[in-house]
Amino acid sequence: MQQTIKGNKSKMRQPIGAPSMANLLKTLVLFSLLFGFTTGRLSSVNHLEGGGTTGDGEAPPHTGEKRGYGPNDPAAYPQNTPADEDESQDGEEVGPAEPPKFFPKLWFPSLPFFRNLWKPRRGQEDEPENAVPQEEEEGDAEFLGSWKIHSENAGVSAMHIQLLPNNKAVWFDTINLGLSDIEADPRRCKPRVGGRNKDPKQDCTAHAIEYDVDTAEIRTLKMATDPWCSSGALSRKGALISTGGNQDGFRSIRMIEPCDGCDFEENDKALIGNRWYATQHALENGSFVLIGGRASHNYEIFAPDQLESTTVMFGLPLLADTNEKGENNLYPFVNLLPDGNLFVFANYKSIILNPYTGETVRMLPDLPGGSRNYPPSGMSALLPIDLSKNVDESKLEVEVIVCGGNTRESFVYSEMTRPRKFLAAFKDCGRLNLNKKGSQWEKEDMPSPRVMGDLLLLPTGDVLIINGAKAGTSAWNAADIPNLNPVLYSPNKEPGQRFKELAPSQIPRMYHSSSAVLPDGQILVAGSNTNPYYMHDKDVDPAMTYPTDLRVEKFSPPYLAPALKKYRLVIVEDDSDNKVNYGDEFKIYVRSGAGEIDYNKIKVTIYSPPFTTHGYSMNQRLLILKLKETGNGAITVVAPPSGRLAPPGYYLLFVVHQDVPSRGMWVHIE
């Protein structure tokens, strides 16, 4: 299904002879009263949206006793309502919405057609029947994006995701929590770990797949060590290097190259420290730094593209200082800076770190409010770095943004309350200039609260905030109130004008969901499993809160509005340079699908596709490159000057014309 939302909605006219709205409401009320008095049940069905109060004026507890709709039941996904109508203040308990006092609470009987009839399917469709695009009118400036289903069932929940240079996305969950929804091909079986007692004793399912982002074709992959809550990044050769995980995956390195038929190779003793909930980032020479993990207050550096290397480990006091009862410092935010040092953020504190000596170069101001890392799970990214002007590397504007999260007590609070309650997530974003001593966090509010969402850099230089919930934290069944609306953040606009709420999805993307920017500019969205194993049906699994969702969506941001198609350029890849060296000039050739090219309104960006899991996109960066010459369908571009700005490896290059990106072309930089 593709849903297109416009800013101006036309009113529907009522057919002659149709019943009035008043009569319909009367009928509905009488129907509710009849069933309510018969059964003694007058209760509210919808408790996904919060912010209401009970009759005594107190906010009722937001419990984990939710209904169990299947993923294809539209009743499971309420339409989005304006943020100021359904939200509590940050840190407050969130309760079920209260209907108007003059209406009885409505109850809908548990007739068979209300029950979950969805059964997972192992196939997928390139173009589902319900994915009918709706064209926007010419010049419609209020196109807020559109959604469509790309696959009805990918078989594996996308707890972790990485786009490869062959336009295949690799994603996986864990091998030790029961069965997935797709058989391994070729068939591989091992004793089942976790899951339902009545499930088969042998696990012959796959827990990792390669997904073709254009055709939705799926190839199953094998994983020998458990990658649950692991880390990863693309190497300088374009391979996915996955690190850490749980149990036998604590010290593992896994590697899969972007080639036909390739599969994971693994070494379960490659690392020095246990890396469960750690963060991985590329350094200027292509090696990787691996920071933190549960009970690991240290980091190590290892060589890329090999399963065995000499690693070096350093202590990191920041992680010990920020470790609390609920931890709150897992999956720390890490970014490489133009001087070769690292920005490291954990819980609410951050530093500039020399990765080669372990020295803290500079302490940064605390971000006030609460915790931003797992399990309160805020979002963060280094904002785009602009190389288009003649600025010395040491004077470049480098800023980081951190959004959402929850209080430092939020996870422990929800774990200890019965019935379970969830605190409202934060709605603030903090922004900090990292190369200006004495700078302070500048705060601004998002349209709605968000925890465990994804924050993605778009080809245009804007930022997309997507997925997640409005209350609670990460962890099994620890959040509620899905945040269905993506938000566009424009960093170059003035404060107060930077956020724009976009068209909502109808599918909650809760814990263990993920997303990825694709070469065509769309956003791939997959995963969502708040349960300790795959659950689809409330009748089978009464403890289910939100069902495991294996559907794959694609979201088209506003720059893909049909009215803007005339500005979208096409890169002539056969004629363009796709292997470049640092500081060199190289040529990109373009053509216009319709209309003339305005060379004064062109910029070229390169994007490092991240490894995304648990609300954090590791190794993500976007650079705006310097243009030397433009005209006659050719653009001469200057490559980044060093690996400090762009670690060696594969990037997606976009030509942005009048704020509309081309399809990206893979380029290799070293």
TrEMBL record:
SUPFAM superfamilies: E set domains (SSF81296), Galactose oxidase, central domain (SSF50965). Residues 159-559 form the Glyoxal oxidase N-terminal domain. Residues 83-95, 126-141 have a biased composition (Acidic residues). Keywords: Signal. Residues 577-669 form the Galactose oxidase-like Early set domain. The keyword Signal applies. CDD domains: E_set_GO_C. The keyword Signal applies. Residues 48-103, 121-141 are annotated as: Disordered. This is Galactose oxidase-like. It comes from Dorcoceras hygrometricum.
